[in-house]
Task: structure prediction
Amino acid sequence: DAGVIQSPRHEVTEMGQEVTLRCKPISGHNSLFWYRQTMMRGLELLIYFNNNVPIDDSGMPEDRFSAKMPNASFSTLKIQPSEPRDSAVYFCASSFGFESGGELFFGEGSRLTVL
Amino acid sequence: GENVEQHPSTLSVQEGDSAVIKCTYSDSASNYFPWYKQELGKGPQLIIDIRSNVGEKKDQRIAVTLNKTAKHFSLHITETQPEDSAVYFCAAPGGSYIPTFGRGTSLIVHP
Result:
């Protein structure tokens, strides 16, 4: 069974460009999370969806960041315009029943470098 | 929200030694405490978890202990092997159920 699939694995872009990261969660999972990992701040939750609806986006840094989940099998995280400080590894994770202690299954991440 | 502190940030041991990583949390509503292992170039993966109704759980060379009164929990790895080298994260959900992660511990096992 395929795990969480993220694309692209690596993205190098110039400041000001639009970046779109994609995620396909595990089939049957009803919750999806976007995390950002940096050396300085560790793993930070950006946004969380439950049944395709955004529940908590308090971790989204600013209006340049947006996330969508048009259906149960696809989500995007968009940064527009991108800045060098957005450079990080972005992880998508999915889960079923995490409210009662369910495991989060992470993708392999998208490493973003903004020059 | 939940605040999770994790120590040490780096841990270097010789193969065969034991390793202990400690975490504290702030929200007394937390009742589920997972540990994740992240290998280089990969996403974190759950290795063991413990719920608040038990004080200890063991799975082969890995064990986790929980002290709810003191709000701290620890990961214990015995007979470490080079393949245990990775970054380990603790997490606690707080009242929101969403895991807040510690800053991570880089474990290095020297052959």
